[in-house]
Amino acid sequence: MAKGIGFSRSSHLLFVLLLASVLTFITGCASREVPANLDSQPENASGSDLYRAAAEGDFDAVSKLTTSGAPLNTLTGNGTPLMAAVRAKADRVVWYLLSQGANPDLAERDQVTPLIVASGQGDRRLTRLLLSAGAKVNAEDLQGYTPVMRAAEAGQLSVVKILLTAGANVNVSQNGESLLMKVVSTGDLLTAEMLLAAGADVNFRAENGDTALDVARASNHQDLEMLLVQAGADL
Fold it and tell me: Does any domain span residue 27?
């Protein structure tokens, strides 16, 4: 019995020591500051160098600059390093910057985000990368455009599908015109079908009272007119 008591006390002491070590580790982690190169900063020399490297899709240069402490979230006169890489369609650089902590939603002065740009470009891979990094699927720029609006207007059906699956609002409007109306005006039957399947309001009225059906008739898009009627458009 004496041996049993000794073992119990030793086990208890070991448990206390381990718990203290874990608490010390957690406290230390919690007190660590966010690395300085993740802060949003105005333009500076190293940030401009990183922007240029990202715009050129130069992965090695981007990696070296980031490792040396170049600020990832510098907002230059032309945008952020991440935005530069998105515009250059430099997938590997975009992935690297996001993995190092680049803000996926840091917007330019017009509030255009990297996801809005990638969506308009029809780049499925970049769209997925940005969404997986937490980019806001319903971000809106100063003109009222969202990622799904840019993708739909550009006829990027596959990107529209990705965005809708990620929770994009199908009933957004810009300048009083719904997304469905914009798509109908371009004669894009397939995208219109997708928007209706996702719950687009077929009877949304613009400020002048027009609906998507009115737009289809004015543009003589008979196939779209039939689609809208079948979807419940008011005659």
Answer: no
Residue 184 lies in a domain: yes
- Print the domain residue range for 160: 104-168
From 120, 150, 168, the end of a domain falls on 168
- pTM score of the predicted model: 0.81
pLDDT in the model for residue 76: 82
Contacts 24+ apart (CB under 8 A), 58-66: 58/93, 59/90, 59/92, 59/93, 59/96, 62/93, 62/96, 62/97, 63/96, 66/37, 66/96, 66/97, 66/100
Q: Are residues 53 and 85 in the same domain?
A: yes
List residues bridging with 74 in a β-sheet: 41
Q: What is the pLDDT of residues 100-109, one digit of tens each?
A: 999 999 988 8
- The segments of the chain whose pLDDT lies below 50 read 1-7, 14-16, 18-19, 22-34
Q: Is residue 206 part of a domain?
A: yes
> What is the structure's pLDDT at 34?
43
The Cβ-side half-sphere exposure at 122, using a 13 Å CA radius, reads 7
Within a domain: 182: yes
The CATH number of the domain holding residue 122 is 1.25.40.20
Q: Which residues does 73 contact at the CB level (< 8 Å), separation at least 6?
A: 38, 39, 40, 41, 80, 102, 103, 106
